[in-house]
Hints:
Homodimer; disulfide-linked. This protein has a single domain, classed as Metal-dependent hydrolases (TIM Barrel). It is 42% helix and 11% strand. It contains 13 helices and nine strands. Strands 1, 2, 3, 4, 5 and 6 form a six-stranded parallel β-sheet that branches. The protein has a three-stranded parallel β-sheet with strand order 7-8-9. Helix 6 (166-174) links the parallel strand 4 (150-157) and strand 5. The radius of gyration is 22 Å and the shape is globular. The model has no long low-confidence stretch (mean pLDDT 94).
Amino acid sequence: MPEPLTENESKVFQTNLHKLLASNQNDELTIARQILERVPLIDGHNDLPHVIRLVAESQLASFNLTDLADKNPWKSDPSSHTDILRLRQGKLGAQFWVAYTNCNTQHNDSPQKTIEQIDLIYRLIDLYSDTFQLATTAQEIEDIFASGKISSLIGVEGGHSIGNSLGVLRTFYRLGVRYMTLTHSCPTPWADNSQLDNPGQEPIHDGLTGFGEAIVQEMNRLGMMVDISHVSVSTMEDVLNVSKAPVIFSHSGAFSVCNNTRNVPDHILRRLAKNDGIIMVVFYNEFIACGQSANLNDVVRHIEHIRNVIGADYIGLGGDFNGVDRVPTDLDDVSKYPNLFAELLRCGWSQNDLEKLAGRNMLRVMRRVEQVKMELSSMEPIEEWIPSEDLQPEHKQCVTEYS
């Protein structure tokens, strides 16, 4: 039996062990960064434009986006996770910036406020043109990534933003919007949202109405991705029945890991894989750990579960940074993405599968959506109006009659 280590020998052993473990962690972090230098890391959901509206009244001259970490009031705002320095540290290759306006604007001025948010995104890109460049296609993402800039894409969060108008939807597409989340924290007159799946709640439409189906069909024709984060399970089912193109969850988790209605049940995950779509995993603590505290490993549990159910080909990342006030430790701002990839390497993920997670899966989805647009090029724009009977009296209070 070997002699026990002396106190000094034990200290030396522990020191060397810590160095070895740190070296291994650094090796994995180095490999993670190398992966993100080969493949554009595409994040599906960042609410920076909304925070700029709230904190800076959309006035870009009042702050410098280069580095906000130690600047007031940003450093004390729990929803401030993004600046250019941290985007570069996090190896972001492409970011969907979200044009979001809250549900209080529904049936009022939601289209106007959404356009103001789209305008803000354009001004942000123009002001920091050495860092950002607008992208509207998968090929543009790859070309911009090769140039060393960060692709900036536009998503609209909440179908209330179109004011029940297919004409507004088409105009959003022309303005560069490449996905729309069908609902947010409120239902629309044509789709149920996820809160209606909570205990004690009742569906309004039991999914999509006929006009809601027309919206999905028109999004397919335009080449705009249909985002079904925030919708009810019945709405998910209806969208997957109607859509000819792959659909996305821009920022959701796995319901089997955390049973929040914002997350996706396994049977929907399986249908998503058959649809060739993608679920981009969110980082909000309540959706990841069903509580106020979470860590990086909680996010890993969601990613691992989804891979176990449907494989690695249908997963991406949609952090919801700047849209939430509680994020996991070790994944607490946009600079920390390499930590997640390093941890997945430790869990046995191959570099090929991590490239898929980073961006290849989303690029595949975008290319297929673009292909469906080409296949539907002979289809005329849908000129349907929302049926009057679908609108309640309170929906019409701010709507004028015009014919």
